[in-house]
């Protein structure tokens, strides 16, 4: 879960596993796997850093690295 801020300065928590795409238009727009779009005040880079931190915290980063090594090996 990552905490983000809507344009009206309200914070919310988003399950990062549902994020499909992040774009800057220049506002950062997050598209979820269900097609819903959320615009946040954080930069694209900030959102990505929070997602990576979340993935590391739940142990997903090492799992992805292992899967990639298995595919290459």
UniProtKB/TrEMBL annotation:
It comes from the Bacteria. Pfam families: FlbD (PF06289). This is Flagellar protein FlbD. It comes from Salipaludibacillus keqinensis. The lineage of its organism: Bacteria, Bacillati, Bacillota, Bacilli, Bacillales.
């Amino acid at each position: 879960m990552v905490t983000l801020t809507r344009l009206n300065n309200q914070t919310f928590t988003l399950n990062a596993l549902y994020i499909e795409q992040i774009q800057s238009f220049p506002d950062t727009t997050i598209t979820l796997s269900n097609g819903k779009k959320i615009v946040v005040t954080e930069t694209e880079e900030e959102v990505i850093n929070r997602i990576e931190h979340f993935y590391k915290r739940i142990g997903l980063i090492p799992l992805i690295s292992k899967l990639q090594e298995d595919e290459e090996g």
